[in-house]
Predict the structure.
Amino acid sequence: MKNSIKLLALLSLFFHVMVSCAKIQDVAVANVSTSAQVNSSSYEVALAGNAFVTSRPTGASEIINNAGLANWNNAATIISIYFRVEHAGDVQLKLKAKVAPANNSSKIRVAIGNTAREIDLAGADFKDYDLGTFTVQAGYVKVDLQGISKTGGYFADVSHLLVSGAASANLLYANDPAYYYWARRGPSSHMQYTIPTNEPVQYYYGEMTVPVGEDAIGSYFMSNGFSEGYFGIQVNSSTERRILFSVWSPYSTDNPNEIPESQRITLNKKGQDVYTGEFGNEGSGGQSYLRYNWTAGTTYKFLLKGQPDGTGSTDFSAWVYLEDKGGWFLIASFKRPQLSKYLTGFYSFLENFNPNEGYIDRKVNFTNRWVRTAAGNWLPVNAARFTVDATYNARQRIDAIGGVENNKFYLRMGSFFSTVVAPNSNFSVQAPTVAPVIDFNSLP
């Protein structure tokens, strides 16, 4: 009997072990299946937020709109789509496209670097076209589309690039439609300066140089930013450039028409040929600018003043040094109500305000930074912290960096470069030793 009981116990134990092994094997199979499912999933990269017309012949009509690529009819046009991978490896690509009207077809070229494929498209309804497998390096990847031949008026309408494969895990791209406009502009970058005093600061001086070739249309290179406004230079078009100075109203709105009269920014005075008015959309307030053909490679000097007027308001004034205009030139002096203070919150930034130009590289250098206290003492500024905007922080696009090169603070953004500098990194330069020489009594 005891032997029978032992035998039954052994058989029971054997049965439970086998069942357990089977369960473990089932779990392993399930895990493999789940992993394969994850690896085989595809990301839908919308052209609306991740594509640009990067080569446009004269007269071409291609555009990127909320639906993606439209009006694609010129064989010389190149459309580029961008996404970022964490690791090198293979990606499988598909293109969601249609060729309208019905019964038309086309042949297009798809390329990543030196690897190119020709793809046939046909059909008036959107469907997924297999582009094959491409080997990519870690960082941002650029996929170029170009038309080869077509039977109708258009090569195709394209809405998405589908990305899957081993290298696509944690793919980074603009995946939030609310950010598509901002992602195509690119993330802005900032230098937040550390001021070496707790005394009231009356003047803020800084020099700025845009390297040759880094002055793309849509750029705003902002030299002297402060808590209540900003002062710098812009590239507004192929024929127009500006020196711009703005001060925010204390009333929070994106529509300047909503600002109560008691909270409006008012003009004290302005320089010759300077336009003054109001701005909106990113807060509201007083705006001034001089149309001026500033040049890349030239170092410009900026001077800002903040002075309480003794009646509960503050006067903010901005000058730029222009040799061809006789030296220090007044852009404008504004009065901000409901505020009585000196200058605070010193920073510089780099941004692109034209979403169609958001694939182009931009860079700027900041040097010889000083503050002058209300008591009349000049103090050098040699430390700063690199920060980024909401587009970067939302991981929609991260091609924005800052730091120090050749003892100069710099900012760079755009062009989908793969270098990363951790936001909130601190930097310092050797402190300048020769303070600016300015006759404040003769400033215009």
